[in-house]
Amino acid sequence: MAISDDMMIDLDDVHLTLPSEAGPVDILRGVGLSVPRGETVGLVGPSGSGKSTLMAVMAGLERPSAGRVQVAGQILQDMDEDALARFRRDHVGIVFQSFHLIPTMTALENVAMPLEFSGVRDAFAGAEAALGEVGLELRLRHYPSQLSGGEQQRVALARAVVRRPSLLLADEPTGNLDGATGGSIIDLMFRLHQAANSTLILITHDPALAARCDRIVQMRDGRLDAAPPLAAD
Amino acid sequence: MPGRLAFTIARRELRGGLRGFRIFLLCVALGVGAISGVGSLADALVDGLRRDGRLLIGGDVELRLTHQPADAAQLAYLQAAGQVSLAIEMRSMARRLDGHHRGLIELKGVDQQYPLYGRMQLDQGQDLAAALAPRDGVPGAVAEAVLLQRLKLQIGDRVKVGAATYRIAAAIRREPDRGADAFVLGPRLMVAKVSLKATALIREGSQVKYRYRVALPPGRDVAAWIEELKLEFPDAGWRVRDVRNGVPGLKRFIDRMRLFLTLVGLTALLVGGLGIGNAVRSFLEGKTGTIATLKCLGAPSRLIFQVYLLLVLSLTALGVLVGMLAGAGMPLLLSGLLAGLLPFQVSFDLHPLPLFLAASYGFLTALAFAIWPLARAQSVPAGALFRDLAAPMTARPSWRYIALAVLAFAALAGLAILTAEEQRFAIWFVCGAAVAMAAFLAAGLGIIELARQLPRPRSGRWGAVLALALTNLHRPGAPTIPVVQSFGLGLSVLVAVIGVEGNMNLQVTERLPEKAPAFFFIDILPDQATPFEALALSIAGVEEIERVPALRGRIVKINGQDAAKVSVAPEVAWAVRGDRGLTYAALPPPDAQIVAGKWWPANYAGPPLISLDAAIAQGINIGVGDRLTLNVLGREIEATIANLRRIDWSTLGINFVILFAPGALEGAPQTFIATAKTTPAAELPLQMAVTDTFPNITAIRIREALEAVNGTLRNIGIAVRSIAAVALVAGGLVLAGAVAANHRRRVYDTVVLKVLGATRRRILATYFLEYSILGLITAVLAAGVGTAAAYAVVAQIMGMPWYWLPNGVLITTAICLIVTVGAGMLGTWLAMSQKPAPLLRNE
């Protein structure tokens, strides 16, 4: 099936079943989704509905049991573990709820990592610029433990966008932050997304936040609901 | 090869500090320290031995003859080659003039040239020649301090040796060539050679050794000179030693101890290897988030493996360095202790080879045990960031990494075998270690499976306790396998060492009193034989006298072929190397066990026949009907082997490897030796009566001789136990690590159980049951594995009879079990002191 170059994400009948001690669990049950380049999508739904797993599939972190996953023009389910790592390095930036900074590295080193993986010569200069964009130019040599939650999430954001990825995935990026800090992080994220003209997929439980996206997609029981809801649970 | 990026990330990861790696570092340092210490010490000893070789043998070359001195032609040849010194040695008795005290001595008569190398040191710094010179017609003697103590003698006192009287002129501080003889039964008494005639001890057939020491001119090739000497006097029958093989027994002993202790050290390292593996696994489990994050950011799996491999290797390097420093310092540390025990100076140079070897062992062990968890870690899916990060890593590594781990273990085994002096021993060890590790792994898996399969106990007060204890054994992340392996291996080593030591002690001491005679009497002249026996039996308490003729002879031909050219198994080479004791008898010895051929008729009168020790016959590969030619005091006698006997040397009775049928030896000059079985009370009267009546007869008290052997064994025991203790400490560390790694989980479990209403008694009972099940199964298995290892060492490698010593095994196992369960319970008690609320708030 021919896919338009304008399409960033194209999922077709994606299934994911994971084994467990109690027997196999169907987490995704035939998800189909197309997201054009530059669009922002709010992914909402109750806990356990499969949002994070769907995001992991888009990032090439989880391999579907069946169906087709095409992201940034590449078919992910045929790629091996290392090819997927390279794909993420070149195309995807991820922001997690719990930041996932590497505790033994400074803010600068954390942000420089994706550039170093790409073999960029001036990794630290690029990282410093990215940290400047999120307002942390004075916190370059600080370790994650020396930063506040909001600052840590800014570092994570800088790390996610430093390579100017075409796809930005955010899994409840404000879930561990207070309201004011969360708001500033979201503003920052949307600004960076616009500047880079990337596609943004945002998982959230906050209806107001979801409403800032171009489109809202509702998940329930491993499937996408046909009609976009007005409010998440 | 890891790239620059791997180094960069590893360096950043090192900032996390050594937390979680303390046990890792201790395990590496302990194992490497033990191995490099043993190696350095052995090298220091061998170096010292080589450096002092000329002192120890008293010349560049020593020629030893028994019974008779060199003839004029031989002496002239030696004197033409260089400076010659003759020392005459024999065992004898020294008696106080008042007859109150007497004791066995190693008598040595020296000439004016003695010592050719080194210096004889006397207590007050006197000159030896002056000390030995006669004063008022009484020749001088110098004695070891212990003789003066035993006989309660002062400097200036007189002492009788044989028929002669000596004046004690000084105490010996250091005799340069004292270490040359491994088998020393009494203290030294040194006199001038010319004075020996007056003792009347040197008679035909008596056990006298003539040691000719030759100092060759500088630059003379010693080996070449020895070859010329052998060509010149092919039948001289002297035993030749030079600096290269100066003290072969001691060198062999050091090599053997080095191997044994290195292998025990390697066991410590292997036990520590479990700790290394556990530490790496537990560290990497804490790193799941970091690994998944790195992968999310685009790091390939190989990079992850390289990063953490570099981390493990740099920490190993630190542990290895600490271990090497400790090992290199070992000779210096023990110098004070060894100074009094050794006949030579220990060298304190740095010995790079054993250090390098120990470092190799350290790195290979770390690699072998770390590859598995490292390979698992690199397969942590990046998607773990979206799931439970605390889940234990359970993926099976790819075949590539399994092959790598197998290769590292094979390299470890290869290194142990290839660097061993006795490879057979090392192969046994490697197989044993592999079987033991596999057995404990299987036991751990078995316990987990059994706990899983057992039907859930019926509910009720204690049913719930048992159910929980069983669940604790098999739940994911339970420390069952590391605990079984570390406790099991550590305890096995201890049981094995105790088993080996117990058997060795048993050989020389505990089994003796009922069987062994009280005395050996040597140098009984033929005309003294009957009066000696009559005298001995007249003393109350003397129960039995056994007396046989004794001669010495050397095997020169085997089936007509030069004995030196016949290939002989190394363990029986001693029998064809030099003079052996010979005897003859019409009837078989009382305990003789004939295993091949037939004993000769009591009235046999025909061509010479011999009865040979079966083990020796097997080593030379000869049997009944084969011929041996013996040189007995210059006369060659060819005899046919009539039968083979199995000899039990442990009875300490009179036993001869070669026993002649009547007819061949009666005419040769000979003496008699005898054993006496007595009640303890009769020992002293017997010794006094015999040595007073026959001053030339030497009485060797078995108990005292064994004390000397026991002293050596005690020192060996200390060395073995010290290194075994390292293995046990390593085991303890690994166990502590496994328990500590589980502590957080246990605190949480305990808190939840308390919240649900469990009393402290019930919680304690649960854990007690868990540890007891685990400990008991492991202890029983370890007792079995350790006993099997001890059996292999004693029976297969040392070739000694094996005795199972259940008491030692039971006591050791019980103590270890109590300590382990106790430590676990202490941890539980500490866990229980946690207040539930704060912990639950943080969860």
Structure overview:
The complex is a heterodimer of chains A (233) and B (843). Chain A has 233 residues and is of the alpha/beta class. Chain A contains 7 helices and 10 strands. In chain A, strands 6-7-8-3-9-10 form a 6-stranded mixed sheet. Chain B is of the alpha+beta class and 843 residues long. Chain B has 4 domains: 1-55 and 254-421, no CATH class; 61-215, no CATH class; 442-515 and 703-843, no CATH class; 542-678, no CATH class. Chain B is elongated, with a radius of gyration of 34 Å. The chains are: A alpha/beta (233), B alpha+beta (843). Chains A and B meet through α1, α2 and α3 of A and α1 and α9 of B.
Task: List the topology elements.
The complex is a heterodimer of chains A (about 230) and B (about 850).
Chain A: E1 7-18, E2 25-36, E3 40-44, H1 51-58, E4 66-71, E5 74-75, H2 81-91, E6 92-95, H3 107-117, H4 123-133, H5 149-161, E7 167-171, H6 179-196, E8 199-203, H7 207-211, E9 215-220, E10 223-224
Parallel strand pairs in A: 3-8, 3-9, 6-7, 7-8
Antiparallel strand pairs in A: 1-2, 1-4, 4-5, 9-10
Chain B: H1 4-14, H2 22-51, H3 53-57, E1 61-66, H4 72-81, E2 83-96, E3 102-110, E4 121-122, H5 128-132, E5 140-144, H6 145-150, E6 158-161, E7 164-174, E8 188-192, E9 209-215, H7 222-232, E10 239-242, H8 248-286, H9 288-296, H10 301-339, H11 352-378, H12 399-418, H13 423-453, H14 461-474, H15 480-510, H16 512-515, E11 519-524, H17 529-538, E12 542-558, E13 561-562, H18 573-577, E14 579-584, E15 593-597, E16 609-613, H19 614-620, E17 627-632, E18 635-646, E19 658-660, E20 671-678, H20 683-693, E21 698-701, H21 702-741, H22 743-755, H23 760-797, H24 806-832, H25 836-842
Parallel strand pairs in B: 3-8, 5-7, 14-19, 16-18
Antiparallel strand pairs in B: 1-9, 1-10, 2-3, 2-6, 2-9, 4-7, 5-8, 6-7, 11-20, 11-21, 12-13, 12-14, 12-17, 12-20, 15-18, 16-19, 17-18
Helix pairs in contact in B: 1-10, 2-8, 2-10, 2-11, 2-21, 8-11, 8-13, 8-15, 8-21, 10-11, 11-12, 12-13, 13-14, 13-15, 13-23, 14-23, 15-21, 15-23, 15-24, 22-24, 23-24
